[in-house]
TrEMBL record:
GO terms for biological process: cyclic threonylcarbamoyladenosine biosynthetic process. The keyword Nucleotidyltransferase applies. The keyword Nucleotidyltransferase applies. One of its GO terms (molecular function) is ubiquitin-like modifier activating enzyme activity. It comes from Sphingobacterium puteale. Keywords: Nucleotidyltransferase, Transferase. This is ThiF family adenylyltransferase. Residues 5-168 form the THIF-type NAD/FAD binding fold domain.
Length: 249
């Protein structure tokens, strides 16, 4: 095991460390994806494609992996710069553009696993999943719930998110209701999340969901574990099963 990953020892076997080094991870969306990318890189995933057409704004700095000097810079470019500062020999390819139905099929998005952190401002998250299913690639869906993190994995064999609702408008509300139902099945208290969804429902059409850095930190760790399990052929839960981590538990 190289000196860079020496402190990963015991937790990660040497053969697993070698295996994840070239395991190709595609991250669609560099908002939630920003800390996930860094967590993956520090763990030893050195081969990544990141894509986002958005620019860094001041309102992103309460939770995303950027600094004031990045304001006005494309997120994929700013994130690549940070990742390369951590590991100059990593293979990081950045596409500074929004995914849409045309470039989804023309960009080189070859990967071993995909992370769908795309905004539901259009139906592109659904199309992204469908495209990856055609390529037999699992897709990890992470959600920052503020005080908690939630994720599910879509595979070619599993149900997809269109089974919740075919429309993208305010889709986060439908995901939130689905999360509440899943947690209640496990007798987990959801009052705080239901209260949030009730308040967010009043502004959902014109505003993306409010999020906290704490939820994103939890989420980054969860995604890393799931991606590691996929890369090393360990068992994972797939949609409609899910993963949840909260400070309220």
């Amino acid at each position: 095991m190289s000196l860079r990953y020496k402190r990963n020892s015991i937790h990660i076997k040497e053969e697993e460390q070698r295996r994840i080094q070239d395991f190709r991870v595609l991250i669609g969306g560099c908002g939630i994806g920003s800390y996930i990318a860094e967590c993956l890189l520090r763990m030893g995933f050195e081969n990544m494609i990141i894509i986002d057409g958005d620019i860094v704004e001041l309102t992103n700095l309460n939770r995303q992996n950027y600094v004031e000097a990045d304001i006005g810079v494309n997120k994929a470019i700013a994130l690549k710069d940070r990742l390369m500062a951590i590991h100059p020999d990593a293979k990081i390819r950045a596409y500074p553009e929004f995914l849409d139905p045309s470039n989804l099929y023309s960009l080189d998005l070859n990967c071993d696993v995909a992370i769908n952190a795309l905004d539901f401002s259009s139906d592109i998250p659904f199309l992204f999943d469908e495209y990856m299913a055609q390529k037999n690639i699992a897709v990890v869906h992470p959600y920052n719930l503020g005080w908690a993190g939630f994720l599910t994995v879509i595979t070619p064999e599993s149900r997809n998110l269109r089974s919740l609702d075919k429309e993208h408008n305010a889709f986060e509300i439908n995901v939130g209701k689905y999360i509440v139902d899943r947690l209640q099945e496990k007798n987990i208290d959801t009052k705080w999340l239901e209260d949030f969804l009730s308040e967010y429902g009043k502004i959902a059409v014109e505003s993306p969901p409010p999020q906290l850095s704490l939820g994103l930190y939890l989420l980054a760790g969860m995604v890393c574990q799931v991606v590691f399990n996929i890369a090393t052929d360990k068992e994972i839960r797939v949609f409609p099963e899910s993963y949840y981590l909260s400070i309220y538990e």
